[in-house]
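batch_manifest entry 22 of 60
target: PqqD family protein
source organism: Candidatus Mediterraneibacter stercorigallinarum
requested by: lab member K.T.
priority: normal
notes from requester: please return tokens only, no post-processing; we will run our own comparison against the previous entry in this batch. if the run fails, retry once and flag.
--- input ---
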Amino acid sequence: MKVQKEFVLREIAGDYVIIPTGKTVLTFNGLITVNEVGADLWKMLQSEVTFDDLLNGILETYDVDEETAREDIQEFLDTLIEGGILDKPEET
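--- output ---
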């Protein structure tokens, strides 16, 4: 999975926001504010990664148990999918 190139992450006054660019501005209303973990996930999603890649990256960086990390990552991905920012990954 990989985020669409029409969206970018910006740090504005200490907050991280995902904003549309180009023609996407006309169809996507608003922006998404994310925390530091969300920003790290976003950075990982700039290249093709799997859910396990994301999970391992978060577990290596943050002091969090695996179950909580799995739930939080899935919630983040669901938000991106609902917003049309990330294509729903194919089931394997």
